[in-house]
Amino acid sequence: MIDAFALTVRAVRARAVDVALARPVETSGGAMTTTPLVLIDLETEEDVTGRSYVRCYTPLALEPLAGLVTNLGTTLAGHSGTPAEFAGKLERHFGLLGRQGLAAIAMAGIDMALWDACAAVTGVPLVTLLGGDAKPVPAYATLRSMLPQAAAAEAEEAIALGFTAVKLKVGGGDLQADLQAIRAVRAAAGDTVKLMVDYNQSLSVPDALVRAAALDAENLHWIEEPTRADDYDGHARIAAAARTPIQLGENWWGPHDMEKSLAAGASDHVVLDAMKLGGIGGWLRAAALAEAAGLPASSHSFPEVSAHLLAVTPTAHLLEYLDHAAPILVEPIRVEDGHALIPSRPGTGLEWDEEAVARYLVVHV
């Protein structure tokens, strides 16, 4: 695995924001009207600041996560090392507690900020530091609405922007509701556009088997997370029975979970989440596993970082575009002709819009 050089951490600052979404994201588990994020600024003695953000899905976890990032930053202050060496230090703190949940998220956020700082010190984009080229990355648009008419209208908007692939959230009703939404989007998008569906873990295995059999006739590019994410055997049963590829991975807590999933034959495609996999280092290990298994690898969330990482992923497939953090960024990632454009700025290119951050800042009591 490529590694960066040593940096000395001066301080780590974490800020909790709850960003209002202009258009709610509907899922089988309910609608998301805000995006709770923790923004991380990692100052170094090399006079660069590495930036990253992590997502905790519920505002209830915002302050605990921000506090955990701050506490971990305190343990690193004054220490020098590469991102891999710092990752080892942090992992040792959680050997007994476990390296999942908020602990894993906090460690990943610091890892991503360290890699951003390493690239910034050298004055190159992260993709260049990792040995890749800043090439356009094929992307798909995740639709926010589950209702047929609204989802179809969104698909038309995405196609007008140049996307050639879209993903629809399903599973909020019965099979007929799924089919109505799928067919409405297909009618709006046309036969040449890749159409994927995401159940967000909402089905039992028996129900998933029934629905996947019906969906085989709908010319879908993949069916994502039909059942509980950690039920690898259940997903393997679904993948074996369905003709449509099964997609899995956004809830793997590190490469070890991915190894278990691959060993079970749980999916035909994999989706990599930089935060849950353990940051940049975790993604690179996961990308090697995907290459060894010969499975197409797409991204989940964090498009600003994922674009750099997909550009160095041997089996890279599609970047998920859903602009959760765009309202608090000076320059959100650009998409042209269905491709995400990697910025030429040093590091990952993240820069906070401080006025927007102040507007969405969660006040600590």
Short structural summary:
With 365 residues, this protein is α/β, with parallel strands linked by helices. The chain has two domains: 7-123 and 354-360, Enolase-like, domain 1, CATH 3.30.390; 128-341, TIM Barrel. The protein is built from 13 helices and 14 strands.
What does this structure look like?
The chain has 365 residues and is α/β, with parallel strands linked by helices. The chain folds into 2 domains: 7-123 and 354-360, Enolase-like, domain 1 (2-Layer Sandwich); 128-341, Enolase-like C-terminal domain (TIM Barrel). It is 40% helix and 23% strand. The protein is built from 13 helices and 14 strands. The chain has helices spanning 62-76, 83-93, 101-122, 126-129, 148-160, 175-189, 205-215, 232-241, 255-264, 274-277, 279-293, 303-310, 354-360; strands spanning 7-27, 30-44, 49-55, 80-81, 137-142, 165-169, 194-198, 222-224, 246-248, 269-272, 297-299, 319-321, 334-336, 339-341. Strands 5, 6, 7, 8, 9, 10, 11, 12, 13 and 14 form a 10-stranded mixed beta sheet that branches. β13 and β14 (339-341) form a beta hairpin. α9 (255-264) runs parallel beside α11. The radius of gyration is 20 Å and the shape is globular. The model has no long low-confidence stretch (mean pLDDT 95).
